[in-house]
Amino acid sequence: MKIESRDQRSEIRVQSSENAPRSTLNAQRASGSALIIVLWVIGLLSMFVMAFAFDMHVEARITSSWRKKLKAEYLAKAGIELGRMMLAELSDADTLNPDPSIYLAKGSDEKVRGAAISLAWGGVAEVTRELGAGTVSVTVRPENARISLKDIIFINDREKTDAMWAPLFESAGVPFEKCDALIDCLFDWVDQDELTHLSGAESEYYESLDPPYKSKNAPLDTVDELALIKGFDEKLQESEVTIYQKLSDFLTTYATDNRININAVDHNTMMGFLGIDAALADEIVAQRQGPDLKSGTEDDMPFKSFADLRGRVPAIPPNLEALISFNAAMGRFSILAHGKVGDVEHAVACVVELKGKDLTILRWIEGDALQENLISH
């Protein structure tokens, strides 16, 4: 039996006391390493969770936007059907009854019936209503509310052409010094030769562009063709709007004569085509809108003849009679419908021809509502 001396036992205790702090230190180091690993894991997991949550948020926004866009598209197409319904009502002879209450009493939807009465008398119809989660707005306008582009170009009469385009250029804000060059380029585009007017352009110029194309040398089929003609694609001074875009507000290729429908033409087109001032244009618009000063309502007071127009607006020059009509020529109308759900919009525009009860679509285009000024021509 081994007996340890007092000194040996003291030495053992000293060694144990020296070893104890080392074990504790190692344990603390191990604990610290584990904590760092845990923090890294938690950080990585947090990043994964945040990325997943962000992806889900983005996907939810995309899905919501897609659903709104689809709803807006169907609302716009429903608006076209609403416009067709208004036009179908024109087959009822009572839409032209001097007493509008007779026709209004035939149905409960006064807004639609009021709009039909306005169309029957040659005016504009505007209806807005909520449908489901969105809103649909419809405007039906006779095509002769705009100027017939084909009827203001006279290849063999430069003076007459200049006279027709001068007020349009002025209303659009086109500088006077550019007007002659624009008419030259317009003539070169529609005439049937490759001879260039003084400031004009034929195929030689257009083939130098990127992409190249030829001069049409034929009448214009759409207002959009103006954008292809030299000069018309230039921007107006201090503006991002081109000459073509500004002029296109006034023009159409679906009207059948060079007269303007005084019951549907807008303020600026009236000034540009008839050459009248803003005050007289305002008076004409106010007179045809009736007491509520709103177009397309049951109390509209459309002009029935030139005598009626002069009786209510005496300042109208008598020489304008040959330039004015009072109803939709050949039954051609444009329908512009907006569907809106939240902050998403969709627009559909078409030109239709009404013969009896038959409605034929002549043109259809749809897209972003921001392009409405272009898609409605």
Question: What does this 3D model show about the protein?
Answer:
The chain has 377 residues and is of the alpha/beta class. The chain has one domain (1-146, 255-377). It has eleven helices and nine strands. The strands form three sheets. A five-stranded antiparallel sheet has the order 1-2-7-8-9. A hairpin with a 2-residue loop joins strand 1 (125-131) and strand 2. Helix 4 (158-172) crosses helix 5, helix 4 (158-172) packs antiparallel against helix 8 and helix 8 packs across helix 9. The longest helix is centred in the first third of the chain and has 83 residues, at 6-88. The protein is extended, with a radius of gyration of 37 Å. The N and C termini lie far apart (118 Å).
Features:
377 residues, alpha/beta, two-stranded parallel ribbon, 11 helices, 45% helix, 15% strand, extended, disordered C terminus
Provide a compact summary of the structure.
This protein has about 375 residues and is of the alpha/beta class. It is built from 11 helices and 9 strands.
Secondary-structure topology with pairs:
Layout: H1 6-88, H2 100-104, H3 110-120, E1 125-131, E2 134-142, E3 147-148, H4 158-172, H5 176-190, H6 203-206, H7 243-248, E4 251-252, E5 260-261, H8 267-274, H9 278-289, H10 306-312, E6 324-325, E7 332-341, E8 344-355, E9 358-367, H11 372-375
Parallel strand pairs: 3-4, 5-6
Antiparallel strand pairs: 1-2, 2-7, 7-8, 8-9
Helix pairs in contact: 4-5, 4-8, 8-9
